[in-house]
Amino acid sequence: MASVTSLTASVHARLSAALTSALPEAAGADPLLRRSDRADYQANGILALAKKNKANPRELATQVVAQIENGGLLADIEVSGPGFLNITVSDKAIIETLAARYADGARLGVPPKDKPGVTVIDYAQPNVAKEMHVGHLRSAVIGDALRGMLDFTGEQTIGRHHIGDWGTQFGMLIQYLIEHPGELAPADEVDGEQAMSNLNRVYKASRAVFDSDEEFKERARKRVVALQSGDEETLRLWQQFVDESKVYFHSVFEKLDMEVRDDEIVGESAYNDLMPETARMLEESGVAVRSEGALVVFFDEIRGKDDQPVPLIVQKADGGFGYAASDLSAIRNRVFDLKATDLIYVVDVRQSLHFKMVFETARRAGWLTDEVTAHNMGYGTVLGADGKPFKTREGETVKLEDLLDEAISRAAEVVREKARDLTEEEIQERAAQVGIGAVKYADLSTSPNRDYKFDLDQMVSLNGDTSVYIQYAYARCQSILRKSEGDTPVAHPELELAPAERALGLHLDAFGETVFEATAEYAPHKIAAYLYQLATLLTKFYDQCPVIKPRPEQDVVENRLFLVDLTARTLHKGMALLGIRTPERL
């Protein structure tokens, strides 16, 4: 594995050294390098430094230019305006840097972070005995992408799917199963569709009895106590619901093209035994106090309608535990048992206040510190075309499986229209990759905390900022490489590059920096934006720079094939980080 210094970093280093030589007291100062429309880069930091040191900015800029050691990196550098530096990198430097990335294989010259930690990502949180709906989409898609990004940078990630598998509804379900044995088949005898059908039937039947029969309702409440007390028979039947639900969960995640490991599905029940100790530790440390019989944590800055502090309830007055106790117990487990250095929670933005209070409580208890942090990745709502929360025409919540099936169906129409030499089986395979990719990309290309409209027609469009556009760009690269008739991609640093080649090359070099920036900010939409821009630059390159026909000189052919191949590798890797596949043919 080779670490390749980006062109941006190389230019920055030369500028910093020259700036220190011209103005020794500016050692360590940032020249504020940024990409520019007028040149490859523009340095704006000299104005502020000149003002700080009472120097003429244009004269200082001229002195900096005189001190720069070029070494073949720069083609031109000019002083502009009151003291800006416009910098153009040489063609040779572009190709040599890209060649080093190309030689590094799948990592593309991107080094792992210097000090990787352990990040636990809490995402994809369905509920036992309930169907997954459109509201479960974003947590799964965003969490999976963040995990791919963090893994690539060298972080050790641990997934946690905090499923809803505990609480009062299970008393109702289990009691019904006791009184109606045989309603659930063993989990290993059903597929995902059958499992959900069975669970739906039992849930609806038990709810109907619960709502109409007071005696059954009382028996169900007692069954909750038996569950929480660890009654063997009750736990056995509860496990049936969990196992059958997992069969269904895995079928949905498989359709989403996501790997969810069974050992990472750790529900609320897993923290049941920890919750009494969590409450005791918080009360003994004074973090939590008794109020009207309940154990609560108060926050001066969080107040309700009457300007009264809003408490976080750790333990209810009747001794029961709620979400706060399980979430705080989960933090203890993740920090002290899993040795996490970072905790990421991909949850609905409407839960932001809850997690703000939970994290602050954990900090007061000493479980979260400057070295162990927690971040709430609150995400927005999936909206329909009318700008309202996405519903069916009947006003019901959209089932996630139905939504994914529709996306695949729409994608099949697009693939079939463009397909030339694909069999029907290949069309269906690619339709799944294109349809699921379209759904994921529409989500990931939007900043997580924003709402977005679910518009399948736009999602599967070949035009605009869509995954299909990027997938077709990758397929076009593969088509060019297949038609190259034995020509080999070879980097030729001695060649003069056309403007479209330069633009493509400079953007390819920025991949690693984009990944690290996006990962540090937990911002997969920045990778999506990078990939869309890369596909757009490839289109301009393809239109302006013939690769095979009309055939240029041999060294030009080889160099352009090199750019095409590196673009394909970068598109493939970038989409993989987002959890999206790139078909070889479309």
Automatic annotation (TrEMBL):
Gene3D superfamilies found in the cross-reference section: Arginyl tRNA synthetase N-terminal domain, HUPs, Isoleucyl-tRNA Synthetase, Domain 1
Record PROSITE patterns: AA_TRNA_LIGASE_I (PS00178)
Example of a GO MF term: arginine-tRNA ligase activity
Compartments where located: Cytoplasm
Ranges where the Arginyl tRNA synthetase N-terminal domain occurs: 9-89
Catalytic activity, reaction form: tRNA(Arg) + L-arginine + ATP = L-arginyl-tRNA(Arg) + AMP + diphosphate
Annotated InterPro entries: aa-tRNA-synth_I_CS, Arg-tRNA-ligase, Arg-tRNA-synth_N, Arg-tRNA-synth_N_sf, ArgRS_core, DALR_anticod-bd, Rossmann-like_a/b/a_fold, tRNAsynth_Ia_anticodon-bd
Top enzyme class: ligase
Position of sequence motif 'HIGH' region: 126-136
Record Pfam families: Arg_tRNA_synt_N (PF03485), DALR_1 (PF05746), tRNA-synt_1d (PF00750)
EC number assigned by the record: 6.1.1.19
Keyword line: Aminoacyl-tRNA synthetase, ATP-binding, Cytoplasm, Ligase, Nucleotide-binding, Protein biosynthesis
Ranges where the DALR anticodon binding domain occurs: 470-586
PANTHER family (alphabetical): ARGININE--TRNA LIGASE, CYTOPLASMIC (PTHR11956:SF5), ARGINYL-TRNA SYNTHETASE (PTHR11956)
Subunit relationships: Monomer.
Name of the protein described by the UniProt record: Arginine--tRNA ligase
Organism expressing this protein natively: Streptomyces polyasparticus
